[in-house]
Design a protein that fits this description.
The chain is mostly helical. It has one domain. It has a two-stranded antiparallel sheet. The model has no long low-confidence stretch (mean pLDDT about 85).
């Protein structure tokens, strides 16, 4: 009989392909190849991060695979919850992939189409770069001459491909990890709720299993924070700076450029997406205590269970959040404050 829920590389196939092609999939068997790629490539930020954080990310991946294997054995009443989270995770991953492809392809397709049109329909073809680059060691305009133009064009195609693969792979993996933690929290609440239908040793056994599940979930959240805290901090700093520059170029009388506008949208999305998924984790954890209280304990007269429930509620009330560098809490309020900070920086630049 075919299993409904498969491991990570089957459930999130597109994300697995992106991570594999970008050599950021946490697989110890490929360590030597990743080390070689890190030394040879100048665009190795993601490979460095995943290589440095290989242990926690490998543990996260192993736990996800273990959980999805066990989900096939769950009662049917649990499976709609799992299906919903798998569907939502795929949806947000696909939306992020579409956004990255749209933004980067704007530069690539625009330059390619304009070069083709100039070649076919212009008596004096004008060449267009994917990204505007000037050669500091040569005269102005030398980048449009052969062979500089062809070399730079191919190199920029390579850069666009690298960024597409790594942005979709790394951020998609982060979305999958955080949403899996949310799923485990909601499953824990359902375990407690269903345990109330039992009494005596069976009740205590099921509550014990639920508590172990809850403790493993907190460890998972800690591993997620450990794996992505530096990257989130880097995203915050880079996005704030880029937004400031975007505001300055857009509002200071420069001509409208749809390529630049798409880049501005991508910059905003790059801080919005992690804030959105982190806010989801925070809200699910905050609601866990209420869900435990509403599990129906008042209809069960087991005294040891009644003493145990308040401890479970207290533990569920422990604040949980995704933090960057252990300092910056990612949530929707951070997204709003980032927009305000970028505008404040723009105002300072404008008044100088």
């Amino acid at each position: 009989m075919e299993k409904e829920f498969g491991p990570f590389h089957v459930t999130y196939r597109l994300n697995m392909y992106s991570m594999s092609y970008g050599m950021i999939y946490p697989n110890p068997a490929t360590n030597k190849w990743r080390l070689l790629a890190i030394r040879k490539s100048k665009f190795n930020n993601w490979m460095c991060l995943l290589y440095h954080k290989e242990e926690p990310t490998s543990q996260i991946l192993a736990l996800i695979n273990k959980d999805y294997a066990s989900f096939n054995q769950l009662p049917e009443s649990y499976k709609p919850l799992v299906r919903g989270y798998v569907k939502n995770t795929r949806f947000y991953q696909n939306i992020w992939i579409a956004c990255v492809l749209m933004i980067l392809s704007t530069f690539v397709l625009t330059a390619s189409v304009m070069n083709i049109c100039e070649t076919l329909f212009s008596s004096e073809p004008k060449r267009h770069m994917i990204y505007d680059v000037r050669l500091p060691i040569d005269r102005p305009g030398a980048q449009f001459e052969t062979p500089y133009f062809e070399i730079l064009y191919i190199y920029m195609l390579y850069i666009a491909a690298v960024y597409t693969i790594n942005f979709t792979g790394y951020d998609g993996f982060m979305i999958a990890c955080v949403y899996h933690a949310c799923l485990r929290i909601e499953l824990f609440c359902k375990y407690v709720h269903d345990a109330m239908d039992y009494e005596g040793d069976e009740l205590r056994k099921r509550l014990g299993e639920a508590v172990n599940h809850h403790c493993e979930t907190f460890k998972l959240i800690e591993k997620c924070e450990s794996s992505f805290n530096f990257y989130l901090g880097l995203v915050y700093v880079v996005v704030t700076t880029e937004l400031c520059l975007c505001l300055y170029l857009v509002m200071e009388g420069f001509e409208f450029d749809y390529k630049f506008s798409s880049f501005s949208i991508g910059t905003i999305l790059h801080i919005y997406v992690p804030c959105l998924v982190a806010e989801k984790l925070k809200s699910v954890c905050e609601n866990a205590s209420d869900l435990i209280y509403c599990c129906g304990w008042e209809n069960n007269y087991d005294l040891s269970m009644r003493k145990f429930i308040p401890y479970m509620m207290a533990r569920a009330q422990k604040p949980v959040a995704m933090k960057a560098l252990g300092l910056i809490t990612f949530e929707m309020s951070l997204f709003a404050s980032t927009m305000k900070t970028a505008y404040s920086m723009y105002t300072i630049i404008k008044t100088q």
